[in-house]
Amino acid sequence: MTTPLLRLTGVSKSFLGTHALQDISLEVDAGKVLCLLGDNGAGKSTLIKIMSGFHKPTTGTVEINGEPVTFESPRDASDQGIATVHQFGGTFPLMGVGRCFFVGAEPTKGWGPFKLFDKKVAGDIAVREMQSLGITRVTDGNRLVGSLSGGERQALAIARAVYFGANVLILDEPTAALGVKEAAHVLRIIMQARAKGVAVILVTHNVRHAMMVGDHFAVLIRGQKADDFRKGERTREEITDLMAGGEAMADLEAELAQLQADA
Amino acid sequence: MTTLPRTTAQKETAVAPPKQSESPLGQLRHRPEAGALIGTVSVFVFFAIFGGEKFLATGGAASWLNIAAELGIIAIPVGLLMIAGELDVSVGSVLAGSSMTLAIVSGYWGAPMIVGILCALGLGVLTGLLNGLIVTRTNVPSLVVTLATLSGLAGLTLGLSRVTTGTTSVPISPDPLSKALFGHLIAGQFEVAIFWWLGIAVCVTVLLQMMKYGNWIFAIGGDKESARATGIPVNRVKIALYVASGFGAALVGVIQTILYNGAQVANGQSFVFNSIIAVVIGGVLLTGGYGSVFGVVLGTLTFAIVNQGIYYTGWNSDWASLILGILILTAVLMNNTFRRLALSYKPRSAKKA
Question: What is the pLDDT of residue B317?
Answer without folding.
Answer: 76
